[in-house]
Write a structure and sequence with these properties.
The protein has one domain: Rossmann fold. A 7-stranded parallel β-sheet has the order 3-2-1-4-5-6-7, sandwiched between helices. 46% of the residues lie in helices and 14% in strands. It is built from 7 helices and 7 strands. The protein is an alpha/beta fold. Helix 3 packs parallel to helix 4. This is Pteridine reductase. Its EC number is 1.5.1.33. InterPro entries: NAD(P)-bd_dom_sf, SDR_fam.
Amino acid sequence: MAIVTGAARRIGATTARGLHARGLDVVIHYRGSADEAEALRDELLALRRGSVALVQADLAEHSAPERIRDAALEAFGRIDVLVNNASAFYPTPFGSATQDDWDELMASNLRAPFFLAQACSGELAAREGAIVNMVDIHGLVPLSNHPVYSQAKAGLIAQTRSLARELAPEVRVNGVAPGAILWPESEQSPEAGREILERVPLQRQGHPEDIAGAVAFLALDAPYVTGQILAVDGGRLLNM
């Protein structure tokens, strides 16, 4: 059974589909995308009855981790995999960033994964389970005009490695660092996209399924892997 945060749309939804296809029951967490979450639930329930539950929570709220854990246990009575996928992302140019920006970006990208891991750690340990954190290549090489987001993802990389040590040997903790997979929903010029892809050795954009496959590998198929960050970026880190 897997919890996937931010699972109603985009990479999170594809990750939930991938884990469901591997036979896991799935808890789909969402904040505001109720229609998309319900549509995904119905899609997956049509494939396997009783295999999906929804939980709504704002990860900025301190009660969210326990609420998500409790919803999973109520629905399925166990937790085997936790995927911390939910993420706020927007520019915060230095000089104009606010403390509210800091709080919002740190809440979803860094604080919530830690406290959700803490809330679920007992169940995960009992099942010899796994945590997979969705980090970012910009946690390794900062993104211009996104200093707060980049710091949050760098912190999540450190958190991944720290919890791999803290939760061993019962729970494995790894991270996936996407590269150019989906462009941000904020406006981006075609020229900017082309410039990015010119620096990708594989010379193409990746797909959400590439990330979902990496998550499934680390969660289910890598019993001797922990504390690792797997970049799924077409080699872009080589040219950053």
